[in-house]
Amino acid sequence: MAIRAVNYPDYRVARERMVREQVFGKGIVDRRVLKALLQVPRHLFLGHKAGPEAYTDHALPIGFSQTMSQPYMVAYLSEQLALQGDEEVLEIGTGSGYQAAVLATLAKTVYTIERIPELAHRASSVFRELGLKHMFTKTADGACGWPEMAPFDRILLTAAASEVPQNLVIQLRDGGFLLGPVVRDDGGQEIVKLARRGESFTLERLKPCSFVPLVRLDRVPSSSDLNNANI
Ligand code: SAH
């Protein structure tokens, strides 16, 4: 998906350096992912006053005690999603919108859910400004997924859950998978991949990580939660 040029400083040089040193330099080799990170103007997702600090090797504050992930982590998750361009992807935790915009250049359609309305609105306006189409945003508890739009080929969690929400798992297309951080019993976090084949699921543990928590809005356990508490 093409990205519209904008009338602000572009920071292309800072972006090229970010990709060379922090992304390719740390082992991300998927050409489509590298191209996406070269294209998407990360600084715009921090507001119009943001400058080259957007391209440093850090997670960055976006207000409301939330953060935009480090460039390497955005690239790593994007590479692990193994997108070919024809997928429907659901992201939980829009935050700044940067990860969703990267996904929009890699997949057919991106649905992204954020629980904080101000962040969701801010991200949507940057998507519009960049001319990103086939992107849909809503303010809600992402742990419920987006049943009206399911099934999804990929579901990306970008906030850490203590267990993978059952509502999300059932919205995966057969052959699809969910990727994202979960909290381990020792309190640490790790990226897991939960793949669906028919009615069976396989869980792969990928690497340690550190994300803000997935916050449940109206946590009333459903009967299916109680029956499937340890997925
Ligand atoms: N993907 C983001 C970074 C995510 S930070 C980016 O590229 O900037 C995690 C985000 O998840 C935060 O914005 C937080 O508000 C949101 N979040 C936490 N719990 C949530 C929930 N239950 N539903 C939807 N969003 C949630």
CATH class: Alpha Beta
The unique ligands bound to this protein are: S-adenosyl-L-homocysteine
Q: How many individual helices?
A: 7
Weakly predicted, low-confidence segments: 220-231
Strand order of the largest sheet: 5-4-3-6-7-8-9
Quote the CATH topology.
Rossmann fold
Q: What kind of assembly state do the chains in view correspond to?
A: single chain
Report the sheet with the most strands, covering strand number, pairing sense and barrel closure.
7 strands, mixed
What do we call the CATH homologous superfamily?
Vaccinia Virus protein VP39
Number of self-contained structural domains: 1
Helix and strand content put the structural class at alpha/beta
Terminal CA distance: 35 Å
- Overall outline: globular
Structure in words:
Mean pLDDT is 91; it is low at 220-231. The protein has a 7-stranded mixed beta sheet with strand order 5-4-3-6-7-8-9, with helices on one face. Strands 1-2 form a two-stranded antiparallel ribbon. The protein has 7 helices and 9 strands. It has one domain (59-227): Vaccinia Virus protein VP39 (Rossmann fold). The chain has 231 residues and is of the alpha/beta class. It is globular and about 50 Å long. S-adenosyl-L-homocysteine binds at residues 66-69, 92-93, 95-96, 98-99, 113-116, 119, 141-143, 158-159, 212, 214-216.
